[in-house]
């Protein structure tokens, strides 16, 4: 395990590498417990690094060193030193060939970084610092090298893959297979990949805009070969989209995707050989939900888009992680928006940002999009780097317009192709291509925390002048007490009393992007016929919170009339939010609870509106989640949140029973399943109605779910019915349903994970005792991150009620699991602990219990560096 010594890496200490590696030849002889790795590096003193010949320092962890040679001569042990996490070699000349032999143990590698085994298949994960678990190497993204990889493996592994093009295939005398791959593009070690196994594949081709034919292959275990088609279709769409929207073509003759069951994250963009978590690539109508189909499309897109935004142009150091991740998330979000409903995609993304990223930004691990220090880089694959980073890129897009942004991205790719660069280089390319100054805008990269806008307005009836005053502020975050004003693009519309957009300038534009740059600024609009109603931050034009004293009537009006669909939804959320806050207050004061009738009325008219996209209707009917309410609260009172939300949901379910039933019936369809946007939208509304109807717990309404469960031809309908039953039906209905479902799907890993998640995430079924039982289930495996996320993660993150039980047993449970997991997989352990890190925001009793659980982790013995960073920062 890596050392938990609290070392901190600082951006200010960045130095160019002392040595460069022009070419890297790797030779693997695969054995589960003892794989031999031979590396041959063409090394050269970096002319930009200064005078003299300092020792060559290589990174390496958990490696058994066999030998070191320079220019064919064994280096005596006196000329190199093994370091706790590397090797330091004395150097006598500015250019040489370094050859290192070492052994590794893939079978015992449960961290899933470096080379490991998943269900008997060898695979690698090298980002961010996994390559150093394979061999000694300058494992930093600004050392870019051309890789040639030779794999030697016994017959049980007929498929042997690495980056680039296959250039040779033969057998050794003892009958092992040898395959050689060559990647013509220089790349950092984090993009290296190797796969070996008994795999099958599907194949297709793509002809690029310039007429080159690319072979596309998706590899998986034989039993999943029927689940690859959707990923292949998604890949081809992504390839076309990147040509159309960014002018970016694929650059190798072959593009491979491999599905593996044991994977820490979603997927990985290794050059020419993407490796995917099975859950993010495999799907069939019978086994995958609509959500999975959409997730696959977006992740396949994401990894593919990295070929340019990440691989051709990569990061200089890991402080620049958002350079590739923020930009690529923005690219994948736009791809998904173009393939599906734009408004719904935006709503989904913003909901996630508002709950999880805003919480991160307000917690002990808060950091800017461009952090300036870390203990363990794996902890910085965060929502801030990814999602807020994407919002920052989106704001640049908003400020420059689509054409200006394209000019900027063209210049960025052209200027930096083949280089390892910084976020600053990205912003400068945008500026240079457009002749603009984004000086103040750069604060989005350097300041953490979620800005708050307090908005007030005034209308002078005599002159027809409307004044909108916006004050911005940003709460303190770790290490940053004072914040300077951000440059915030505030997209604005003004509605007249008929609900129409007013022209905002002489040219008749009805939407304007205000440039908010001061701590307080007033914007004036002249010649208005009457007092307008502002539609603020349309499309969520910046990752900020907006306070404006909307009345209930005004929100109802915006819900009906705003031409911006995102803001229509947002108005409904504000309305529901206010109602839920009132309920929480009443609950705390011991008053009888009652829901204002306006909310049900508003939902009724949304349900009746046949012009709206059904997926948007489904979003509009959803109450803000418990997690969203928690994020917004000054102090989180978990019991009040649960009481308020449960009460409101029940009230709405009874008040809208007939309309919900009508809508549910109307959306019944016997069309063959197809995961297209229109059908997905209809299913999402149908199942949203079903979920509400089951809240009533009335037998004839629960029967709807039973019937749907029994007859469902696709996993979306089946899982939605099972979840509704699991949440609301009595045991004599739920138990057989869960059992049937398991019996039918026990052979399918992805479905079993879904089944785990439904139970652990249910307030009724996923009690602590039940979760303990699931962990004893034969299909549960602590070494498999998907299983951990489906059982423990779903309990801690999605089962707000049970996790926050007042006796604190949910916290103790999580702490115990985190401690056990840390010994196997530090990355996953450090992520899993997140819900405990927010303890300071909770009411006193729960806060102390959460803190106690965190402390017990700290006191449990030696922690990994990953977990140590999160726990120590949270306790500080
Ligand atoms: N670059 C990948 C994410 C990723 C990061 C780290 C991993 O292992 C620790 C794996 C994947 C992406 O953005 O998709
Ligand atoms: Zn990525």
Which terms would index this structure?
876 residues; alpha+beta; 8-stranded mixed beta sheet; 5-stranded mixed beta sheet; 27 helices; 20% strand; binds O-methyl-L-tyrosine; binds zinc ion
What does this structure look like?
With about 900 residues, the protein is α+β, with helices and mostly antiparallel strands. The chain contains 27 helices and 31 strands. An eight-stranded mixed beta sheet has the order 6-5-9-3-2-12-15-14, with no helix packed on it. A five-stranded mixed beta sheet has the order 17-18-19-21-20, covered by helices on one side. A four-stranded antiparallel beta sheet has the order 10-11-16-13, with no helix packed on it. Helix 11 packs parallel to helix 15 (about 675-695) and helix 14 packs antiparallel against helix 15 (about 675-695). The longest helix has about 35 residues, at about 385-415. The structure holds O-methyl-L-tyrosine and zinc ion (ZN). The site of O-methyl-L-tyrosine (0A1) has 14 residues, from strand 20 and helix 2. Zinc ion binds near residues 302, 306, 325 and 328.
The largest β sheet comes out as: 8 strands, mixed
What is the first-to-last residue Cα distance?
24 Å
Report Rg.
28 Å
What ions, cofactors and ligands are bound? O-methyl-L-tyrosine, zinc ion
Residue-averaged pLDDT, rounded? 98
Structural class: alpha+beta
The total strand number stands at: 31
**In DSSP terms, counting alpha (H) and pi (I) runs of 4 or more, how many helices?**
27
Shape: globular
Q: Give the helix proportion (percent range).
A: 40-55%
Strand order of the largest sheet: 6-5-9-3-2-12-15-14
Estimated share of beta-strand residues: 15-25%
**Uncertain segments:** none
